[in-house]
Amino acid sequence: QVQLVESGGGLVQAGGSLRLSCVASGSIFSRNVMGWYRQAPGKQREWVAGITSGGSTNYADSVKDRFTISRDNAKNTVYLQMNSLKPEDTAVYYCKLTEANKVGDSWGQGTQVTVSS
Questions:
Q1: Closest by Cα among 9, 19, 34, 36 to 90
Q2: Is the dihedral of CA 49, 57, 7, 90 positive or negative?
Q3: Is residue 89 within 8 Å of 113, Cβ to Cβ?
Q4: Strand order in the sheet with 77-82
Q5: Residue 114 pairs with which residues in a beta bridge?
Q6: 3-class DSSP state for residue 88?
Q7: What is the pLDDT of residues 87-107, one digit of tens each?
Q8: Alpha-carbon distance 81 to 17, whole Å?
């Protein structure tokens, strides 16, 4: 059973920065993709960024050039460095793990990010 625990959320002013972390524990297949998603009040959950176990990254257009995803495979941890935050970045941010040898994904419980104007 894989568990994901996010941390690092909080309240920040527009233009500020936050760094989210997600630690995965349990039996994790080495070939996997870890990603960040977010869900704002009244909106559907949306993909933010993803990173493969090999280090390839992808970003949603809305966060490109402001957010950076990275990972430490030895620690089973993925990070999301968020810079130049905007009020529209306010959401609950979730971590997701997709393993190549499993059907279905693992999700964390989420961490709240609030950006004030």
A1: 9
A2: negative
A3: yes
A4: 3-7, 18-25, 77-82, 67-72
A5: 11
A6: helix
A7: 999 999 999 999 988 888 999
A8: 7
